[in-house]
Amino acid sequence: MKLGETAQTPAPTMEPAYFKRRFLFLILLTWNLPPLIGFGFIMLFGVLTTQQILEIITMPVEPIYILVWQVIIIWFFPKKQRPLTDWLKNKDTTDLPSVLAAVRQFPLWYWGLFLLYQFMAVISVVAAAAIHTDFILTPLLLFRFALIALIVSIIVGLPIFFLIMDLFGRAMGGLVADRPIITIKTKVFLIGALIPLLIDTMLVQYYWTRTGYFTIETFGVWLVLELLAIGGSLIFVRSFGQSLSPLQTVLSNTKDLPAMDFSLLQSKSTDELGVLAGSYGRLLGIQRQSNMELSKSKAEFEAMFNSISDGIIYSDMQKNIIMVNPAVTKMFGYTARELKGMTTKKLYANTKVYEDQENVHYGSGAKDNQSLYEVQYRRKDDSLFFGKINKTRVTDGDGSVIGLLGIIHDVTDDKQTEEALRRSQQRLSLHFMQTPLGVIEWDLEFTVVDWNPAIEKILGYSKQAAMGKHASFIIPNAVKEHVDKIWAELIKNTGGFHSTNENITESGKIIHCRWHNTPLIDSSGKVIGVTSLVEDITDALKVQEELKAHQEKLEELVEGRTAELKTVNKELEAFAYSVSHDLRAPLRAIDGFSLALLEDYDEKLDDEGRDHLRRVRSGVGRMALLIDDLLILSRVSRSKLTHTTVDITRLTRDIANSLKELAPERAVRIDIESGMKAKGDQHLLMVVMENLLNNAWKYTCYEQAAVITVGTKKHAGKFVYFIADNGAGFDMQYAGKLFDPFQRLHRVEEFEGTGIGLATVQRIIHRHGGTIWAEAKINQGATFYFTLTKVEVFEEKNGARD
Amino acid sequence: MDEKIILLVEDNADDEALTLRALKKNKILNEVIVARDGVEALDYLFGTGQYGGRDTTKQPELILLDLKLPKIDGLEVLKRLRANERTALQPVVVLTTSSEDQDMLASYEFGANSYIRKPVDFNQFTKAIGHLGLYWLVLNQGPPRGDK
Known about the structure:
The complex is a heterodimer.
Chain A: H1 16-45, H2 50-58, H3 61-80, H4 82-90, H5 96-104, H6 108-132, H7 139-171, H8 184-211, H9 216-252, H10 272-307, E1 311-315, E2 321-324, H11 326-332, H12 336-339, H13 351-362, E3 370-378, E4 384-395, E5 401-410, H14 412-434, E6 438-442, E7 448-451, H15 453-459, H16 463-466, H17 480-491, E8 498-504, E9 510-521, E10 527-536, H18 538-600, H19 607-638, E11 643-647, H20 648-662, E12 668-672, E13 677-681, H21 682-699, E14 706-715, E15 718-725, H22 757-767, E16 772-776, E17 782-786, H23 789-801
Parallel strand pairs in A: 12-14
Antiparallel strand pairs in A: 1-2, 1-5, 3-4, 4-5, 6-7, 6-10, 8-9, 9-10, 11-13, 14-15, 15-17, 16-17
Helix pairs in contact in A: 1-3, 1-4, 1-6, 1-7, 2-6, 3-6, 4-5, 6-7, 7-8, 8-9, 9-10, 18-19, 19-22, 20-21, 21-22
Chain B: E1 6-9, H1 13-25, E2 32-35, H2 38-46, E3 62-65, H3 74-83, E4 92-96, H4 101-109, E5 114-117, H5 122-139
Parallel strand pairs in B: 1-2, 1-3, 3-4, 4-5
Helix pairs in contact in B: 1-5, 2-3
């Protein structure tokens, strides 16, 4: 709120219509009261008789005159007060001052009209008297009446008008309608001109009435006196105006005051008023200057107060917070509103500490006005932090303490940074001392500034021996140029960060080192030195070379072996092919022609001959079987595995069905577990199941109630497939030979077979990464188990899902 | 109607005798031309060499082709006769000892109509030849002779 602004005018509560009536009544009173008083005067002085007055009033001239003025008033004033009536309808308080100003401002012509009215009132009365009565109006009499009217209007008319306007304001309910602004100059003029006029006029009247003598000379003297009075008054006003004009300038332009040039206020007048006005101008200048300085320093203070990152708390002596800056709200998490009036005690982490600290710093024993200490604070969310507080006792002019100013600096970050720095320094020095890498620090002259224990070992020089030496003492001549180039790049920070080159040790040995160089940069980005990490790679290089040689040899060897293997493989394939082709052709001839003999020469052969030929043919058959089985075996080893999901159950069922079809006379029960699936080579797994099922079929051929079971189970923690029969079985002591080629545990006469089938099965299982084994007892059946490693996981997963 | 000729391409005399015996046992009495190597087989088919001047419009109803042959092997013979328009559509049955996948695949790839592995057991061989003759010479309708 600006200073000097007055309280707002209370809003009037009356109805617009009521106000209008009131206003009109008062205005009519203002206009009609003076003429009434005028009549009173006329009666008092006995100018007209009562009879004459009654006649004047009842005759048309005077009533018409009065009526015309009443009409003018009724027409003019409602217009004048319209803004106020409008305002009363809307009650927009912001407009009130301007509305009031409009209502109470009466233009000059109004005053002129007012005076004319006053003047004419008298004229009209005497004119009416002259016309309607026996009253004789001489020019002198008219003048006399005019003078009376003048006197009455000035002494009576104006005060009554102002009085009534005041009454009007009070009637509006506190709405004080100010009087019209009348400047000092006006007042001086009025006093200087009107008072002599009044006195002179009254004197003339008195003289005239007493003596009955009034001539042109009298009027002339009166007029001269009046002119002199008015002239003197005007001269006085002018001089007075000169003295006052600076003040007037100021007073009439209060709005432009801040920008006004106060030197204009220097009054030309030397009287007291002029000096006063000039001094006032200077005073204003000084005040403006100090105002500007104050607002500037206030702005500076506020900017500082608001933007400083340290928290500032100002509290009274009861430790209640009066003012905080934004940093405090950030620091503590309270809003400024919450903090205001809060006791500072709440901001401390520990109440006890708070009391101790307060006693030390502000108790009776406290000596200094200022104190600095570190303490733990508590945020709104109860989290804690360390702050350094600088407390100042604020004293007023006579030295008594009026408040406490605390400036809090959050030192959490400082503390963390300090701790981190300390740790990193510790780590660094530990690394420097302990690392197997050599560490050298160089200055810009390429001389040694630091030298760690590892580099002592690598290059042989002790730290004392190396410090301050130029790098050339460890650089062999051969690599000097290379190193110089690297150094030039490094100190420009453009390269040379890694290098592998020879170095020379204290004992003169040439070693290979790998260098990792980092320019040290100061805060302005300038290179101030270089740190090098050095790794002795002499041994590593040697090992690497040896390794490379070995590797090459190995590769050669592998290549050779592979080629050999390929050749062997090819030969094997060719062999298998020719076995398949060429070995079988003669067999077919033997069989074919043996049969031809049996058929064509039957009558020439005896029984023994026929038996021989039958044996020949049976031999051929076995031979063909052997060849076929061998071919399968070789193919199993050679062929590529194609892994797919194989439906073992279905495959086994197909095999079982074809076995049953081939020997429908046999009653064999084959139980096959459903849902067996495996990942593997479809064709090869078929060969496996064929062989195993064939075996089971074969070895149960003497069984009355043969049962073959195919399924899966857990065996020693493994997922296994099994094929069990209740047939001839075998002696477990020969179980080891079971899977060797051409090994048979039964005579051919008992059970047919080549002894290659199980070898083939084993090879297939092995190629799938599984194992196969059998358990059996003579005449109590045999069970073959096998695993398929790669399949196991697949099966387990399936199992888990079911 | 012309007599249906069988072309037997077989280098092994034993196998030739056995095949002819098996045909006879199955009462297949068609004329059998025997070619003892690949060249001879092609000469017969295309009317060249020793068969120069042969009326090549008359082609065998069935070709029994062994794979292992001197000079030009069976697969090459198959390839060439398939490449020639006169013989491109003739039924060819590969009759061989080999049961290698590669041979089987190659034969079919070059357009063999059938692949039969000769069984060692002569009874079975005879049975196989019987089936073969019945199928290709009696049941099967050969390609129409467009050029006649």
